[in-house]
Write a structure and sequence with these properties.
Two copies of one chain form a homodimer. Chain A has a single domain, classed as 2-Layer Sandwich (Alpha-Beta Plaits), CATH 3.30.70. Helices cover 31% and strands 33% of the residues of chain A. Chain A contains four helices and six strands; from the N terminus they run E-H-H-E-E-H-H-E-E-E. In chain A, a hairpin with a 5-residue loop joins strand 2 and strand 3. The longest helix of chain A is centred in the first third of the chain and has 9 residues. Chains A and B meet through strand 1, helix 1, helix 2, strand 2 and strand 3 of A and strand 1, helix 1, helix 2, strand 2 and strand 3 of B. Strand 6 of chain A pairs antiparallel with strand 2 of chain B.
């Protein structure tokens, strides 16, 4: 199992809508995330009183060797592009992220299981 | 079980030392955290190339009614004040946090188990 932490900006005026669409995720998206081996996925909002930040953390339960292929399959899942067309304009991607990444990966400096 | 997300600033010049002391937590601190019912505790670093941010997430496994008392016991645990004397000067607490809080609590806008 591998843990991930990620961050991205969120436009202040989009926060309510972002919250709303995440109350009940589209079933196709939820199924694809689970199928990829992602578990315990949380997104927190940091209210800076301007455009805020979203912090995400999740666990990947699957073989290291399958990670890239599973993420590619997740990206190609039914309705995923439609979902991203909804969420991407709400978000402000941050500098320093890896090629092809939308969220910025964070370094885990501490873990206690 | 209740999940928490929290954020605090970290002084750029203190990051290496913060990382170092978290590689192997003092046994008294680790024991006190576990005793409080805290599990799956991660701290991630968001490098802004100035003073950065630390994003923490953890789970509280225990009765709601015991939460405040357990956190008070955790705060009073052996060597906890000594630990905080080390970590607090490295950190930059953020506005908007609740009375008596050092880290700022975040709103969870999404969770998939």
């Amino acid at each position: 199992m591998k843990r991930f932490g990620q961050v991205i900006g969120i436009r202040k005026e989009c926060l309510d809508e972002y919250r709303r669409i995440h109350v009940k995720l589209w079933p196709e998206i939820e199924a694809a995330i689970r199928e990829a081996g992602i578990r315990n996925y949380s997104i927190f909002h940091f209210d800076t009183h301007q455009d805020g930040l979203l912090f995400a953390s999740f666990e990947y339960h699957g073989p290291d060797t399958e990670f890239d292929a599973r993420m590619a399959r997740l990206a190609a899942a039914p309705r995923m592009r439609e979902w991203w067309n909804l969420t991407e304009p709400m978000q402000i991607p941050l500098p320093g992220r890896n090629q092809g990444q939308w969220w910025l990966d964070l370094e885990e400096v501490f873990h206690l299981g």
